[in-house]
Design brief:
Radius of gyration: 17 Å
Distance between the termini: 51 Å
Number of helices: 6
Order of helices and strands: HEHHEEHHEEEHEEE
Strand content: 25-35%
Structural class: alpha+beta
Number of strands: 9
Length: about 180
């Protein structure tokens, strides 16, 4: 039991370091994928006590440091929900936060030996993203696109998009397919 608790603490610290700031509900959901969510509460408390993470009870967020609360990025937070949803459907071997220059890609992951990325595209960003993807093509990488509203999915012109989704307030994912 103690070993599982320590393992969750290590993995939780790594997860928060990777994405800088996460909703506590995302952390619980992430560990629920393999039945370890019962260790999360104690792990959060232990890491906060050791000053390895900061928890904002009001915002229900956990971050690597307090500065990250104000610079958290909505698209990345939505993309983490999408990643957690994908983990329920396929084995995700590795996942990373994409570099800023990879915009609008937020997360890159390897699942079943294939590389995927998760993009977040707001309605205002559609033409910019279409322009970027008309010039840049990532061969062999499937794109999962997170949107706020499915009505603008037909306007998105990204080759190799394997699916689209929206994230509801509680982190629930709704998937859409669009064959353009």
């Amino acid at each position: 039991m103690e070993n599982k608790q320590r393992a969750v603490e290590r993995e939780l610290r790594d997860l928060i370091q990777k994405y800088n700031v996460l909703y506590k509900s995302q952390i619980y959901e992430y560990f629920a994928k393999d039945g370890r969510e019962q260790f999360v509460g104690r792990a959060l408390k232990a890491l906060e006590k050791e000053r390895e993470i900061c928890i904002n009870q009001e915002l229900k967020l956990a971050a690597i440091s307090e500065e990250y609360y104000s610079v958290r990025e909505y698209g990345t937070m939505q993309s983490v929900w999408a990643l957690i949803g994908i983990m329920g459907q396929k084995k995700v071997e590795q996942h990373f936060l994409a570099a800023a220059e990879e915009y609008p890609v937020r997360i890159i992951f390897v699942g079943d030996g294939e590389i995927y990325d998760i993009l977040y595209i707001s309605q205002e960003e559609v033409s910019l993203v279409n322009h970027l993807f008309s010039r840049k093509r990532i061969d062999g990488c499937g794109h999962i696109v997170v949107v706020d509203d499915p009505t603008y999915i037909p306007d998105i012109q990204i080759p190799d998009a394997v699916g689209f989704c929206t994230v509801k307030e509680d982190g629930k994912i709704e998937y859409y397919r669009f064959d353009g």
